[in-house]
Design a protein that fits this description.
- The structure is a single chain.
- By secondary structure, the protein is of the alpha/beta class.
- It is built from 14 helices and 13 strands.
- Strands 10-9-8-11-12-13 form a 6-stranded parallel sheet. Strands 4-5-6-7 form a 4-stranded parallel sheet.
- Strand 5 (110-113), helix 5 and strand 6 form a beta-alpha-beta unit.
- Helix 4 (94-105) packs parallel to helix 5 (125-136).
- It binds uridine-diphosphate-N-acetylglucosamine (UD1).
- Uridine-diphosphate-N-acetylglucosamine (UD1) is lined by residues 6-8, 34-37, 40, 61, 67, 92-94, 125-126, 196, 227-228, 231.
- Uridine-diphosphate-N-acetylglucosamine binds at residues 6-8, 34-37, 40, 61, 67, 92-94, 125-126, 196, 227-228, 231.
Length: 349
């Protein structure tokens, strides 16, 4: 059973699902329904080449407890009914936690893709999800050496396999396809921005500071409006700021079109974890609207800098120089093959 729920998980699961199909392993693809708007769900499936889910639990939005609880109940029912031989979960969302917990309590082996990340910020719900899921899982697929050593230091070394990062696999697959839609005017120099983390959106003053700093940037700044950003800006009476100064709001774009826009930009400003890494892999300067990152590998050569507490300096940070050489901390693009090989070995034991 492959469990997904939020947009980044559709991207990560796509290469794994394809590798399962190539090896003839039966896959039950389950969508918890954590993300449900067409732009956050159905169109992402289509864009990354992930087949339609076999089941959708429609859990929708809610508090952490209600969303995780609904996914837990739905997944447990499905697992009892379908009796999967193993459950694959991805990343650090509430859907990941629900999938790992439901399976572990039914004694179904749990395999965690993208294990071992740590931001060391326990105020982030995702950090709590990561820690809990890693300790519930039977097999931990670490994307990087640092993730592997984080797991070792928590006593989880014996369950850990360094496989590389499935986002590299995903990016290679996307590279072979045409970008599916123009999202910016490519005749100009521009920046791309995204903001969706609770720490940047839930507090009114923080959100106002972030939007004001973005509106003062020296290039037109295309802001991909995550539904959480739009709804919090509306609740806080800050909707006008979304369109002020250099800011140009856009609906979330198809993934490949969005990455094409990032690739051709002067830089990305974001608080997303996955996008910090995608910018690094595309060789684009990233400025992160957080004080820490679970992907410190991206800080190499100042390809990424942390600007969480330095909003006043944002304009100069986005124009900084980067080193020209990059290492390859995220692996070779064959992570999904290694994951499915490990799964096959586990199933045949
Ligand atoms: C979730 C993940 C986060 C991940 C992000 C990717 C958790 C704790 N967080 O955050 O790790 O980086 O997904 O996007 O699991 N909404 C809609 N339509 C949708 C989905 C959400 O309008 O299809 C709005 C609702 O107002 C909702 C809010 O966005 O309350 C937040 O959605 P939610 O799934 O709870 O968290 P994300 O911020 O998307």
């Amino acid at each position: 059973m492959n469990v997904v729920g939020a947009r980044p998980q559709f991207i990560k699961a796509a290469p794994v699902s394809a590798a399962l199909a190539r090896r003839g392993i039966d896959e039950l693809l389950v969508h918890t329904g954590q993300h449900y708007d067409a732009s956050m769900s159905a169109s992402v499936f289509a864009d990354v080449g992930l087949r339609s889910p076999d089941a959708n639990l429609d859990v929708g939005s809610g508090s952490h407890a209600s969303q995780t609880g609904a996914a837990l109940v739905g997944l447990e029912t499905l697992m009892l009914d379908q009796r999967p031989s193993a459950v694959l979960v991805y990343g650090d969302t509430n859907s990941t936690l629900a999938g790992a917990l439901a399976a572990a309590k039914l004694h179904i082996p749990v395999l965690h893709v993208e294990a071992g990340l740590r931001s060391r910020n326990r105020f982030m719900p995702e950090e709590l999800n990561r820690i809990a899921v890693d300790h519930l899982s039977d097999v931990l697929f670490a994307p990087t050496l640092l993730a592997q050593s984080n797991l070792e230091s928590e006593g989880l070394g014996p369950f850990t396999m360094l496989v590389g990062d499935v986002m590299v696999d995903a990016l290679r697959n996307l590279d072979r396809r045409e970008p599916s839609g123009a999202w910016v005017s490519e005749s100009e120099e521009y920046l791309v921005a995204t903001v969706h983390r609770a720490e940047n959106t839930d507090d009114r003053d923080r959100l106002a500071d972030v939007l004001e700093a973005l509106s003062r940037l020296p290039y037109p700044t295309y802001l991909a409006a995550h539904p959480r950003l739009v709804s919090r800006a509306h609740e806080h009476g800050l909707s006008e700021l979304l369109e002020s100064g250099s800011l140009r709001v856009r609906d979330p774009a198809p993934h490949s079109g969005f990455l094409a826009a990032v690739k051709n930009s002067q830089g990305l400003v974001t608080d997303s974890g996955g996008l910090q890494k995608e910018a690094f892999l595309l060789g684009v300067r990233c400025t992160t609207l957080r004080a820490e990152t679970e992907w410190p590998e991206t800080l190499e050569g100042t390809w990424n800098v942390l600007a969480g507490g330095r909003l006043g300096e944002l304009s100069s940070l986005v124009q900084r120089d980067t080193e020209s050489v990059q290492g390859e901390p995220f692996g070779d693009g064959l992570a999904s093959e290694r994951i499915v090989e490990a799964l096959e070995r586990m199933l045949s034991d």
